[in-house]
Amino acid sequence: MNVAATISRKADFPGLVTPAGKPWHYLDSAATAQKPRAVIDAVTKALGANYATVHRGVYSRSAEMTLGYEAARRRVAEFIGGSEDEIVFTRGATEAINLLAYSYPDKRRVLLSELEHHSNIVPWQLAGWDIDVCPLTEDGRIDLDAAADILTPDHAMVAFAHVSNVLGSVLDAGRAAELAHGVGAKLLLDGCQAVPRLPVDVAALDCDFYAFSAHKLYGPTGIGALWGRSELLAAMPPWQGGGAMIDRVTFETTTYAPAPQRFEAGTPAIVEAIGFAAACDYVANIGLDAIHAHEAKLVAMTREGLGRMNDVVLFGPDESAGIVSFAIDRIHPHDLGTILDEENVAIRAGHHCAQPLMDRLGVPATARASFGIYSDEDDVAALLRGIERTKRIFG
Ligand code: PMP
């Protein structure tokens, strides 16, 4: 059976319908995913007919919106196998990691890896942690044998990408958890690129914290989540003050609400939370095993097509999840991206917020094609055609 043909859902995505019926080959889902109509409709309803604030209103519309907002928390928790009191809504993965880096009470040494996104590097620097860096294997996976040698009881945290946003490499999270816990450290997984393309169950992964953004999961921008084990969240002090995170305020002293509310100061992203839950429903209905198989097929086609071109360097392991990074001799990725745009092919070119990884790969930038539910063989064919044309232009 043709898996890619059975799953491709272009018709669900108004953003992919172009004027004059010309297909738009969107290959930048790792940056942000297009939105299905189910999410757009849920957001429209929450912003229109159902709109009101949450938590403080005594009138029924607000009470209903509060139920909707808390139901969204339950839905997001369920999506990754956690419980609702363990989900802190944040602005996205970036804010989730900042929250943890600032608020975790035992700030000592953190082990990162060479492939981390800047949002899993800079917050630890800003919050004053000592940083060690785990190298990569030749094919671009986090080298867990090296991690085993580096880790000591001085490490309070290990923070690794579950899936690399540049290489698509998938972490052996079970082993990472074993190694972290073996020295008494906690494990944060940056799940930004994993939640849209792999089944994620935080209990099975045995991690302690999990950070992700809704907008890569076909949901709205401006919202994401930090999942944390409840006893760990309970031991973390608040990091921002304001409304909704308190128990009792006087000028002399303030007591705080329990987690997760303690970490959600101010009026939350109500509408976005509803859209986040709708995105979880949409993705769960299709099924992450099917999505993973679909994207794996497109990755294999792309890597095979690029592999046949003798002047292309492919980065990352063959079995990467939904993401293919590459470089072409003599052609800067930005030039490639611009010429592909003329062919209605949208790829990403640059350092992908992973400058230390670019240093490790010895390139200033890569070209990156990344897939989603709506991607299909036509998109891959258009990419390969566009690359051949670019190579002819550059001689
Ligand atoms: N981590 C990874 C692996 C990512 O791909 C991204 C987004 N490119 C982030 C973190 C940051 O996510 P956001 O910008 O949505 O906060």
List keywords for this structure.
Aspartate Aminotransferase, domain 2, 395 residues, binds 4'-deoxy-4'-aminopyridoxal-5'-phosphate, disordered N terminus, 2 domains, 14 helices, Aspartate Aminotransferase, domain 1
Question: What report would you give on this structure?
Answer:
This protein has 395 residues and is an alpha/beta fold. It folds into 2 domains: 3-31 and 287-393, Alpha-Beta Complex (Aspartate Aminotransferase, domain 1), CATH 3.90.1150; 39-285, Type I PLP-dependent aspartate aminotransferase-like (Major domain) (Aspartate Aminotransferase, domain 2). Helices cover 38% and strands 16% of the residues. It is built from 14 helices and 15 strands. The protein has helices at 3-7, 37-47, 60-79, 93-103, 122-126, 144-150, 173-182, 202-205, 230-234, 270-286, 288-307, 333-342, 355-361, 377-393; strands at 25-26, 87-90, 109-113, 130-134, 155-161, 186-190, 209-213, 224-228, 246-249, 254-256, 312-315, 323-328, 345-346, 348-350, 366-370. It has a 7-stranded mixed sheet with strand order 2-8-7-6-5-3-4, with helices on both faces. β11 (312-315) and β12 form a beta hairpin. It is globular, with a radius of gyration of 22 Å. It starts with a helix and ends with a helix. Residues 1-5 have low confidence and may be disordered. Bound molecules: 4'-deoxy-4'-aminopyridoxal-5'-phosphate. 4'-deoxy-4'-aminopyridoxal-5'-phosphate (PMP) is lined by residues 92-94, 117, 119-120, 161, 165, 190, 192-193, 213, 215, 353.
